Amino acid sequence: xxxxxxxxxxxxxxxxxxxxxxxxxxxxxxxxxxxxxxxxxxxxxxxxxxxxxxxxxxxxxxxxxxxxxxxxxxxxxxxxxxxxxxxxxxxxxxxxxxxxxxxxxxxxxxxxxxxxxxxxxxxxxxxxxxxxxxxxxxxxxxxxxxxxxxxxxxxxxxxxxxxxxxxxxxxxxxxxxxxxxxxxxxxxxxxxxxxxxxxxxxxxxxxxxxxxxxxxxxxxxxxxxxxxxxxxxxxxxxxxxxxxxxxxxxxxxxxxxxxxxxxxxxxxxxxxxxxxxxxxxxxxxxxxxxxxxxxxxxxxxxxxxxxxxxxxxxxxxxxxxxxxxxxxxxxxxxxxxxxxxxxxxxxxxxxxxxxxxxxxxxxxxxxxxxxxxxxxxxxxxxxxxxxxxxxxxxxxxxxxxxxxxxxxxxxxxxxxxxxxxxxxxx
Length: 426
Ligand SMILES: Cc1ncc(COP(=O)(O)O)c(C=O)c1O
Description:
Shape: globular
Number of domains: 2
Number of strands: 15
Helix content: 25-40%
Strand order of the largest sheet: 4-10-9-8-7-5-6
CATH architecture of the largest domain: 3-Layer(aba) Sandwich
CATH topology of the largest domain: Aspartate Aminotransferase, domain 2
Strand content: 5-15%
Bound molecules: pyridoxal-5'-phosphate
Oligomer: single chain
CATH superfamily of the largest domain: Type I PLP-dependent aspartate aminotransferase-like (Major domain)
């Protein structure tokens, strides 16, 4: 299906779109790896690992200096005392996902946080013990939910329910998700979906899913690995019980970066939810009295276990500052245009060369387009790499291209598709 687009297929037009882009200056805030010809690469893999913000090294260096200069005193007398360092990113992270600061904390990594959240929000009973997930969820999510149900003594084949696309379709229909919740919700303890599926690039309707699941008495959580920094999220208003995300993709905080957690305000002060406890989740006022009884901090902070890694937080600070300056609403507006531009140029490639498997509806996708090419994808990827174009590959045969609005340009997208056009015509 080809939709008419107002985009022209010329380099001059790509330059014009860049000149009109109010966010174009943010590109200079990032390091672009050099291509084989020494020029910056066309980097379309920000859905896998985002580029390095130029300020990251400086922010990490400051903490290294304070450690060298102050030793243990850095916890209190550093330029950014480490005791409170994680709080420096809380408000920015909250704005990014549409939450209140009380509802957000940056800690650990995604799979760890998903387990911690399931300790609290997967409370199976004999009648209601299932977890509803999307079929083809990221493997770590599949392992996490399967091991959680086994941990509670259930058989994962029975307790993990997968949503599957209809015969002959590649993505899920919202109506089918809602219908499954309506039909099976009484048996479901937890609905846990990605916000954007890593392989298809499909974005789910979080408010509708949350509403339907809550109406049936299920807890709801989302994996925002591909949603945070990509979509304009409204977690507080949408009302899921929890969400988790990582910060190395669209959030550009570096390999293995810290993850984020959202716990809805309605759970901020509940003492009856079980949780795994650690001293960093203990009330700040009495933490250093070293008492034997855990008194949780209100809100998401109460789920913290350990004192956090400061250098990782420093890298995240450098990135979240940029998101905060640009604003996620403006970034999303640019992203829709940039991905729409990519889509329109791909649609003009020779018939049958590439198929976009991500939904065409902008509300059902973020920056990523998942592409199936005629011929062997890994060879194509290698050639692209030699030409200075970085995308990524996921088995069985998907190349994912994700123009990130914070640093990608319309000219990047144009150069990518022009290279493909050359290969298609060979
Ligand atoms: C959708 C999704 N969930 C979970 C993970 C696992 O993240 P982590 O290694 O930070 O636990 C990833 C990693 O890419 C992912 O894409």
